Every structure is written in C-alpha cells, then in structure tokens.
Amino acid sequence: MDPVSTHSETPDVSFDGGDLDCGNGLLLLIRKHIDPLPRGGLLEIRSTEISVDEDLPSWCRLTANELVSWTKNGKQRSFLVCKGSLSERRQAAAAPAMPFTAKVTEEVAAMPRRVQPIPAPVVPPLSVMGIGSWPRPRWMVTAMHDHVQGRLDAAAFQEIADDAVRLAVGAQERAGVDIMTDGEQRRDSYASFVATRLEGCQLVPLIDLLPLVDHPEEFEAELRALDVPAGDVRHPGVFGRIRRTRPIAGHELDFLRTVTNKPVKVAIPGPYLLTRTMWMECISEQVYASREEIAADIVRVLREELTDLLDGGAALVQFDEPVLSEVVFSGPKNKRSFMCGALSESLGPAHELGFARDLMNAVVYGMPRERIALHVCRGNWTPDESVALAGSYEPLVKTLAGMNVGAYLLEMCTPRAGEMEILRDLPQAARIGVGVVNQKYSDAESVEEVSDKIRRAIDLFGRERVLFHPDCGFATFADNPVSSAAMAERKLATIAAAVGDLSTHREI
C-alpha cells in the first residue's frame, strides 16, 4: 500500500509510538489502544521508525485488522488501523449504536408510578426560566458540608435547605420568571449529588482519584486554573450495582410545588454525562464488565426518575449534557474542561455522539416529548470566559436533532457559542430555548441588548417555539458560584422586562 497525503477517515483514538519498532514494545502499545475499541473503531499510530512500514501491514494481516491508509512526512509516519474491517464501521454507523431503545419497550408497563399522577400546566411560548442552579446562601453551603461530614443529620439538613429554596423561589418570582426551579439548593453540584441518592455509589474526594489520571500533576494544575481545588470536590464512585431506592430529585419537586403556584422545572444529569462520570475502569470494572453495562443501569434509574417527576407534576424535566461539548471541541485550552473527561474513557467523537444519542432516546422512550428538555453548554466553573470550551453548535446539531426531546435549552449569549442560525437545523417540532444573558458577566445586560437577542430568536424560529433563559446556571458548584444572588435576580428580571416590553409594543 502506497502512502497518501491525508487520511480519508477520522481516527477514534491516536497515540505516538515514537521510534519504537514492532519487536520493542510498539505492538504492546497498539494492543493497549485497540483492544478497548469496538469493532470498526479506528486507531491512529504515529511513528518515526522505518521498519514499521513493513511490519505493521503484516501484523494487520495476521490479526485480521484492516490497514486503512498511511501517510509519510519526512521521518513522521501515521498509520490508520481499523479494528476488524472498515465495512463493519460503516454498517455500525448506519444502524443504532446501542440496543437500549429496543430493551426498554418491555419496561414501560412495569414503570413505578405515583398512585395519583399530578397534571402539569403547559409551558407557554416566550416563557422565561433559569437553567437550574442558584447561588446558595453561605449558611446553606455550611450546612451542606456539615451534612456530608456527619455533623448534621438528614432531617436538619432538609429543613435548612427548605429555607434556601424559599429564598431562591422568592427571587425568581420577584424577577418575573415564568417557570420555576428550586435553584438546586440541596445539591453540591449539578451532577455529583446523584451519588448520594443511588445505591452502589458514593462521593469520593477528587484528590483520592488523581492517581487514576494519566498526568495527575497537570490535571491538578488545570483544576486550580478552573477555580476547582481537588481537595474540595467530590466525584461519584461506583462500588456496587446501581439501584434507585429513593427519588433522585422527586423530593425536590415535591417541596418546590408547595412554595409556588407557577409551572416548575427540574434539572437532572443526562445519561451520557452520568455514564462518563461513573465509569472509571479501575473502580467500576469491579462491578460492571463494560461501560455499556453500567450505562444500561443508568438508563433504567433515569427512566424511573423521569416517570416519577412527570407523574409528580413537573411541567418540564431538563437533562443536562454539557460533556457533549468536551467530545467535539478540541485544542490546547480545551483538553480537559470537564472532570469526567479526564477520568473516563472516550472512543472518539463519532462513537461518543452516537452513544449519547442512543442513551438519551432510551431514557425518554414512550415519554411525553413536549415535557422533556435538553441543556448543553461549554463549562460553567468560573466567570473566566477564557477557560471554558468554545465552538459553534455545528458539530453537535445532527446529534441533538436525533435526540427525541421536545425542547433544547442552549447557551447563545456568549460569543463562544457561535451563530444562532445553526440552530435552524434542529427539528421544527421542537422548542428552542435561547440563552440571552451570560451568567458569567459581572454586570447585568441592558434590556435593549436582551430585546435584540429575543427579536433575533423570534425571527429565526417563530414566536410559538422560543423560550428564554441565561446561558447556564448561576452556581453549578455550591462552593463556586459564578454570580451573586442579587445579580442573578437582576439578570432574570432583565429577560422578563425585555419580553414584557416587546409584548407591550406588540413586537411579538
């Protein structure tokens, strides 16, 4: 096979073998990287050793793996090897990547249901809402730490959290918000709290997991740059089969409905986010044989939770899947902007996006699409815009469009998100939630600025389809809010005022 100028296919995984030859360790590295790939997965091997030109094709023939192509630029060579054959990859791309959706059809009738489902109001067009999190009062953060460390019992913690929820709801009502959240006051973060609600999981200090990262010193430095000290952050660890024996967020919904008469929304981590977060080979593989096996249990518990939330009267259930951004955006600054991206396996954008799509569709199968939303952002640890991921939705739109949800709640205010026009490729039947204020900015946007963004969204998507919100939450991590409560209220009030002004002047 003659070399080509560039590979026609994109690899799922790459590694640099340097000057190693096949008899001096290179084959071991190839095995290390190719064995975890699915059939049809593509591995790029970079090498400066001339003997690999002949030895690697022979190895491919002996192992029934296909050498797709190779390039040569001076001493540097790049070999693209398919695990199995390239035809298997194309067949896999044409068919559903995972069997989850087929499996859940048998589970629909057996779903645990509330004795008396509570009807939920329809979310009106042009509704204003927060994404989810709200800055916790200092005493709420103290109570959270005391509870985790055993100094405060569960009943006392819930009572304190109830007061924090009342404050968050009051601020949203003063701001003129249409769809209420509880501000995620009971959660340490938007995702890791799940480990405290499921059997088989527990929160592990991130510093205890640093040895599992390829370059722990580098990772710790990156966390410091993100204002996320490794000693203060806890990460879900899976030590047994995952089971839902109590609500993940249903108790939050039940209390929220007692303190507001407005429609309510509950945000929970999506199935791909949880799979990437919870699957850490050296820990999880003691219980689960594969990432797919743990994902099946995650799908099951999320379906149970979604059923409970819908029966409990949630007008909208929002799945958070920010790590989708980590899959498609690359570059020196974007290498690890999500903690789970450093701690779990990733098999390349095409595979990961298909995996994420299939997981989501399995969770929502048979559920009322109009009450299910998906939120995607590019990182929300710090007000520093230079740290978060950047890139338009263009590489994600096809995947998002393939997820059977009724609304997409997307950041669009930050210039990191690209052009709004790209979102026109999302399904016409779905609603588009547009971020019109940036929670990271220290000042509130003007009503005029927000009005311009609202007009633009209505022009693109139509009045009946659009919803409005900040780009992301105001306090993704309890210990590290990106905004004060006062500023969060001002930003939501600005969105509500802009919608109200345009309605008054009959512009919408």
CATH hierarchy class name of the largest domain: Alpha Beta
Radius of gyration: 24 Å
At the third CATH level, what is the topology name of the largest domain?
TIM Barrel
Q: Strand tally, please?
A: 12
Poorly predicted runs: 331-337
Question: H/E series, N to C?
Answer: EHEHEEHHHHEHHEHEHHHEHHHEHEEHEH
What gap, in angstroms, lies between the N and C termini? 62 Å
Number of helix segments?
18
Largest sheet: 6 strands, parallel
Can you give the helix content as a percent range? 25-40%
Q: For the largest beta sheet, what order do the strands appear in spatially?
A: 7-8-9-10-11-12
Query: Average pLDDT value?
Result: 86
Assign the structural class, choosing from mainly alpha, mainly beta, alpha/beta, alpha+beta, or little secondary structure.
alpha/beta
Whole-number count of domains: 2
User: What percent of residues are in strands?
Assistant: 5-15%
Shape: globular
* CATH architectural type of the largest domain: Alpha-Beta Barrel
